[in-house]
Amino acid sequence: MKRLLFLLLAFTFVKSFAQEAVVFKIQYLPSKSYKMSMDLDVESIMNFSGNQEKIDQIKASGTSLPITVLNLTQMATTTTTSPTNSKGLIPARIVFDKATSKNTINGKETSVDQPSLGLIVVGNYDVNKIIIDSLVSDRLDAASKDAMRTVIENMQASIKFPEKPMRVGDTFDQEVPMQIPIAGANPFNMTVKTAYILKSIGKEKANFDIRILVTLNMDDNNSEMAAEGAGDGLVEYDIRDMQISRTVSNMEMTLKMMIQDLQLEGKMKIKSTQEISVN
Q: What is the reported pTM?
């Protein structure tokens, strides 16, 4: 009896331990509907110092300093998948249901629909990567469609999870490039390094904390540029649907650069929220 009890306890322990290790991966499944919504909220304050004559010219043109810019970009898509075809691929159709941008510059607000609104993407999923066959839109020209094709392909599975099982407390890092355009000057080429820390694993969801570090890529920039940033957030992973169901990040950045004899100094706050539901 004692031996049987010991074996039962041992089996329960091993089973519980095994359930605490999960292989995370992003995968699109056949005959599903995926609804994604994304909000990107950016607040930036820019100011100039240096040549007073040029600063006076900027002010005389009607531009108040510092320049405060609030930008809210919202996007929503619906991805519908069909049964797996004879090639082992999953046919898919992505519709851009919403694509808007609202800008407020020194209190003056403008709102526009992005050209991607109404875009229809037709292709096939090979595990987590879409192979695009065509893009249908009456708002995008050929060059814009090619650019959107690149953006969409890069959007897929933006988080690269380790191939090995992960347990609570495990971490992994990922680096991605980021570019900040500056009117009348070279863009800031940055590197965003994100550390993912697995905090919990439940029956349906797993949760990660994230730590973000932004550095200037000195190979692509000159010595008159300086930038840095940091942030944090969370990632929620849906175990059954094999999707990232929710991502929230908050980041603050500072940047400086010389434009001829003017120094531009800026501060940015960036908040991003993305949610995906599966039916």
A: 0.83
